[in-house]
């Protein structure tokens, strides 16, 4: 590669108005030395040809000393050397050099090297949006549900607010402004919901606000992506992670509250729940199970298991015949059936504490035995079309349950039964509350629910047992605490 020539020129003009450039006699003193008070130093460097094959050169004459000109020229040569034998990249870098304005510094060599290494054009700043899309694509080996969450955060929040900012210029202030805008949007949604104008209320129907927990998860996604940008081997894209230094409101989990008579009356009057997480009284729980047994016998045993033994929805649907031992009244949880988007997927439970074995109470064991009798009848009716899956809870046609179907049918049963609303997951809270109220200690509750620490159990449940304090034996008493209507036999 040609090293270019360094020379001194000036802007003086001759009598015809033409610039003298390096021909100006004032550039040198009488003895031939350079005149330090006249002209500017610069250089001329042959550049890679244009796309059309035409020749071009880089000329920069804005320097006060020969050393400054040489340093700038060497920076240009260093940038051109990044291309190696890649002629297309050499043309891109030459285009970049010609775009640098007179007097402006040359682009930083390491910054351009990072762009080139990332597969981006040398002449374009990598934006936050470009990096996040590239980063998400590189994360395809992790859990599909995690990928979906990352993608949602990037698409809905991060790119709209931060996408156009150059990655290397992303600041704490930019991220803080994003969360301020999200908070302002939340306020606007709530104001619209309270409007007396039905047309205004209609504009936010079905639109969710972004709560503190969601904001924490959005920041977590950005923080992870920026950490990876700092940790890239050989080429760190950034040297500072601003997402680590953004302060957000605490994302405390809502405390479960009990549907007392007073809470139910207020809900019927206003439609508002005391808390997002609600727990039925034992009488309400018994009324639900009675209604489910009469109106959805196929899912009734699933609800019994969640209500009495505190399983998550996915854990109950992930049971297999090999993990349910009704003879010894023992159940092992090691798989879960959950969703990614709307697609149902089967996978191992998330944590070691979630992988657990627990005892069944006699009531749940009896309900599950009756279920197996019904399941055998379903299989006999379907004959050769019955699929052999090995899953414990299946539909009457033998197919596995879709988790969302189970939740929708639960919600429908609650509405039709006229009971105050709870989520299907809240049956797990019911189980824990009844167990604690029946005399079990927090360690028993922690082990049953599969919590990783007793702190989680304590923080969640110690505030809801005041109205449910009774003396019972542990697992057996927790089931007996739920009153049921007498029947000739357990169908």
């Amino acid at each position: 590669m040609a090293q270019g020539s360094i020379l001194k020129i000036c802007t003086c003009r001759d009598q015809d108005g033409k610039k003298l450039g390096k021909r100006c006699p004032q550039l040198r003193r009488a003895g031939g030395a350079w005149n330090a008070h006249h002209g500017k130093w610069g250089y001329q460097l042959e550049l890679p040809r244009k796309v059309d094959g035409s020749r071009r050169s880089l000329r920069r004459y804005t320097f006060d000393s020969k050393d400054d000109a040489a340093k700038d020229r060497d920076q240009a040569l260093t940038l051109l050397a990044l291309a190696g034998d890649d002629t297309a990249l050499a043309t891109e870098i030459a285009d970049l050099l010609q775009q640098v304005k007179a007097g402006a510094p040359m682009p930083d060599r390491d910054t351009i090297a990072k762009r080139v290494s990332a597969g981006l054009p040398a002449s374009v700043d990598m934006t936050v949006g470009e990096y996040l899309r590239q980063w998400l694509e590189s994360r395809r080996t992790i859990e599909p549900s995690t990928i979906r969450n990352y993608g949602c955060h990037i698409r809905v929040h991060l790119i709209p607010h931060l996408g156009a900012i150059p990655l290397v210029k992303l600041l704490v202030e930019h991220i803080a402004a994003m969360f301020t805008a999200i908070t302002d949007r939340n306020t606007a949604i709530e104001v619209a919901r309270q409007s007396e104008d039905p047309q205004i209320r209609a504009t936010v129907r079905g639109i969710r606000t972004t709560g503190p927990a969601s904001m924490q998860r959005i920041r977590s996604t950005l923080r992870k992506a920026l950490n990876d940008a700092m940790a890239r081997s050989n080429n760190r894209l950034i040297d500072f992670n601003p997402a680590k230094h953004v302060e957000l409101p605490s994302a405390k989990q809502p405390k479960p509250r009990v549907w007392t008579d007073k809470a139910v009356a207020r809900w019927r009057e206003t439609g508002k729940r005391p808390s997002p997480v609600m727990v039925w009284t034992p009488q309400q729980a018994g009324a639900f199970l009675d209604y489910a047994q009469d109106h959805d016998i196929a899912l009734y045993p699933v609800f019994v298991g969640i209500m009495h033994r505190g399983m998550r929805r996915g854990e109950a649907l992930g049971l297999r015949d090999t993990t349910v031992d009704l003879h010894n009244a023992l159940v092992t949880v090691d798989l879960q059936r959950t969703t990614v988007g709307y697609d149902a997927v089967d996978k191992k439970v998330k944590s070691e504490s979630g992988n657990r074995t627990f005892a069944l109470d006699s009531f749940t064991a009896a309900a599950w035995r009756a279920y197996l009798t019904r399941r055998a009848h379903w299989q006999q009716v379907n004959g050769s079309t019955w699929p052999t899956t090995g899953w414990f809870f299946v539909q009457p046609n033998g197919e596995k349950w879709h988790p969302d179907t189970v939740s929708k049918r639960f919600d429908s049963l609650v509405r039709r039964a006229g009971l105050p609303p709870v989520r299907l997951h809240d049956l797990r809270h019911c189980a824990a509350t009844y167990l604690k109220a029946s005399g079990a200690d927090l360690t028993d509750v922690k082990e049953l629910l599969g919590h990783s620490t007793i702190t989680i159990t304590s923080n969640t449940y110690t505030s809801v047992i005041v109205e449910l304090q009774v003396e019972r034996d542990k697992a057996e008493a927790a089931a007996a605490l739920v009153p049921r209507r007498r029947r000739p036999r357990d169908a």
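Residues 469-475 have pLDDT under 50 and may be disordered. The chain has three domains: 5-116, 128-245, 257-480.
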